[in-house]
Automatic annotation (TrEMBL):
SUPFAM superfamilies: alpha/beta-Hydrolases (SSF53474). It comes from Paenibacillus piri. This is Esterase family protein. Signal peptide: none annotated. PANTHER family: ENTEROCHELIN ESTERASE-RELATED, IRON(III) ENTEROBACTIN ESTERASE. InterPro entries: AB_hydrolase_fold, Esterase-like, Mycobacterial_A85_antigen.
Length: 242
């Protein structure tokens, strides 16, 4: 039986005020085992925060990495999703995309950094997201390179507008990116239509490689589901927390 220490977690629910979103946004802050206020920690910011907790099991993964593999502890900030406006906030053409990015950088980061001893260097802030959550995470890194230097993308929706954004960059050697895509993601149904996420990620890969992005790219058997992403998340976290 698994050791119960893997499942212990300290989670603090916060309401972050936001003028950009027009209402507060709930975030759930997961503190690592043995958290001390006098020590600073790297931080992972997760889009679709509830899913990272409930389906990605990110708190359990963090504990296992700390106890079993000696990975440095990190604070995990999981931002709740408002389902009705998720696409508007996460898709680059969305009506709320610009304001969500402003909320993230101008309101969420200062709120967290005032209350928790997280590190503020770009390579100590990790962005993580699945599907469109991977999209907005990459755009945040590209648009605010002084703030973010690492991105975990689980089957990112790297469609045309995102690929054009990558192509606009000349040098991405400063960016570390983990990209996972499933071989069974050739017909992913979304509210915007059906897309070939596998081909989209392959095209994004070529653009990123041409710009010297520090890439870890994985294609594995899998569908556009947390059942696939959950098992790959620990390796991504370990890579980024080295």
């Amino acid at each position: 039986m698994d050791d119960p220490i893997y499942y212990k977690r300290t989670m603090i629910k916060e309401l972050v005020p936001s003028s950009f979103l027009g209402e507060p946004r709930t975030v759930r802050v997961l503190l690592p085992p043995g958290y001390q206020e006098l020590i600073s920690y790297p931080v992972i910011y997760c889009q679709d925060g509830e899913q990272f907790i409930n389906f990605g099991r990110i708190a359990t993964h963090m504990n296992r990495l700390i106890y079993d593999e000696g990975v440095d502890p990190a604070i995990i900030v999981c931002i709740d999703t408002v389902t009705a406006v998720r696409t508007q906030e996460y898709a680059p053409e969305g009506a709320r995309f610009a304001n969500y990015c402003r909320f993230f950088t101008q309101e969420l980061l200062p709120f967290i950094e005032q209350k928790y001893n997280v590190r503020t260097a770009a390579d100590e802030r990790i962005l993580a997201g699945d599907s469109l959550g991977g999209t907005v995470s990459l755009h945040l890194a590209l648009d605010y390179r002084s703030l973010f230097g690492k991105v975990i993308s689980l089957s990112g929706a790297f469609l045309q507008q995102t690929r054009e954004r990558i192509a606009a960059e000349a040098d991405l050697s400063w960016l570390q990116l983990y990209m996972l895509i499933g071989l069974e993601e050739q017909e992913v149904t979304t509210e915007r239509g059906k897309f070939d996420f596998l081909e989209a990620n392959r095209e994004a890969l070529m653009l990123l490689e041409a710009r010297s992005c520090r890439l870890t790219y994985l294609e594995k058997p899998g569908k556009h589901l947390w059942g696939f992403w959950q098992h790959e998340l620990p390796a991504a976290m370990k890579l980024m927390l080295k």
